[in-house]
Amino acid sequence: MSDALDLLTENFGAFASGLWVTLRIVGVAFVIAMVVGTAVAAFRVAPSKALNRVGGIYVETFRNIPLLVLLLILFIGVRRAGLPISAWVAGTLGLGLYTAAYIAEALRSGVFAVGKGQIEAALSLGLTYPRAMRRVVLPQAFRTVIPTLGSLIIAMVKNSAIVGASLLALPDLLKEARVVQSETAQTEAFLWAAAGYLLITVTVTVVFRHLETRYAVRR
Hints:
Oligomer: single chain
Order of helices and strands: HHHHHHHHHH
Shape: flat
Structural class: mainly alpha
Helix content: over 70%
Strand content: under 5%
CATH topology: MetI-like fold
Distance between the termini: 48 Å
Number of strands: 0
Number of domains: 1
């Protein structure tokens, strides 16, 4: 155990830097996932069949392509098509778009839990469909699916390790642990990487349990 503590002490800067990069990746990807996922969920429940199809195609496409393949398409394929894209943009965008498909389905189930009666009542009061969704339906849907959203964000934190392990090679927590391990030949580096991911996921769990206690709809 003393060897592991010495390793952490001697390479604390590298682990802290990797943890900070992981937090940034997750933070940016989370914003992308929530914005895109909310829009796709609105498409999925819209009265327009065309919008339903667009939302359905998005969900089925991004849920059935492995995240690593999606990252390679964004980073290598898009660059070969002539559009310069950095590893950072490709990593955060890929992780965000991938997670958005799952968030969209979670929100769609939340919208169905609200009930059509409230949508119809909002429309009868003169609200347009987008305003009814934004002001009446989606706020309740978010409250309904808070536990599910927490689980999806935890999954996104763990999936962020793929960004550093892929050809993008962003200096995230796992990447820094691999560098430390290669320089010191001590596998305990991955123990501290695991501890870092555990720290993030436990924090997310605590936050979402608090949100669930305070805001979740109980039926």
